[in-house]
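From the methods appendix. Each design record in this collection lists the tokenized structure first, followed by the designed amino acid sequence. Records were kept in a plain field format so they could be parsed without special tools. The example shown here is representative of the layout used throughout.

RECORD:
FOLD TOKENS (249 positions):
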């Protein structure tokens, strides 16, 4: 548990919940996937303000006023990426470049904000047959890996496999292996502008992965690492100084 006091927003498209697809999602996640993630975080950040937002909210719950006060935004999406308004994506991108932390989860690899920030397709191999996933720590010195057992055993999970079309990550923290033989870079970090990004793949609408304590801890560690509450929220700017500025100064 940490004493950090942060403003955290958990965003979820919440389309599966609205459609009751799969039929077990209400039983697994009665408060939605976003609710389960937020509940897990509250155990690690009891003094922080943790709220949720969804696609159906006005401005998707991500207005300028909300983002200006947000230290960390977590993003879960799957089947409604194209329904996210471009102006909201641009707004989130500006805040990430200015220093807001971003944690992207599971199928959020195809989210507009993630592909825009990374500049690649972010595509991957996948197969959803409920296979066992082992999450191996390959950089135990990283703060996100602190206190995490290796491997984390996920009994049933959607398979994600290489090639994962992302830029070379700043840090490769976790690699997953699956019973079908595939491997996947399941925990990676990036920096964009002044912002920090953590992508973590385990978690799917068909399996109760976000209730696993070790998965919750990884996500909490990720939140703590991407958060930079003391950073002045301003995107890097390019200036055009007059010739001789140094001498005149």
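DESIGN:
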């Amino acid at each position: 548990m940490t004493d950090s006091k942060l403003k955290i927003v958990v965003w979820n498209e919440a389309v599966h919940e609205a459609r009751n697809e799969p039929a077990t999602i209400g039983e697994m996640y009665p408060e939605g996937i976003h609710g389960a993630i937020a509940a897990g975080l509250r155990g690690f950040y009891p003094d922080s303000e943790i709220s949720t937002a969804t696609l159906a909210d006005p401005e998707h719950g991500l207005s300028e006023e909300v983002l200006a006060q947000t230290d960390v935004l977590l993003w879960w999406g799957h089947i409604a990426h194209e329904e996210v308004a471009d102006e909201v994506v641009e707004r989130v991108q500006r805040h990430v470049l200015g220093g807001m932390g971003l944690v992207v989860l599971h199928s959020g690899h195809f989210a507009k904000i993630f592909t825009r920030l990374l500049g690649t397709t972010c595509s991957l191999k996948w197969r959803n047959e409920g296979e066992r996933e082992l999450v191996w720590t390959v950089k135990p010195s990283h703060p996100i890996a602190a206190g995490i057992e290796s491997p984390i055993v996920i009994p049933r999970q959607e398979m994600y496999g290489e090639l994962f079309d992302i830029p070379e990550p700043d840090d490769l923290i976790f690699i997953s292996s699956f019973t079908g033989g595939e491997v996947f870079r399941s925990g990676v970090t990036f920096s964009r502008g002044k912002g920090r990004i953590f992508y973590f793949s385990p978690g799917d609408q068909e399996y109760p992965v976000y209730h696993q304590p070790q998965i919750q801890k990884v996500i909490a560690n990720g939140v703590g690492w991407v958060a930079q509450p003391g950073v002045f929220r301003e995107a890097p700017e390019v200036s055009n100084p007059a010739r001789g500025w140094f001498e005149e100064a």
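APPENDIX NOTE: The two ends are 49 Å apart (CA to CA).
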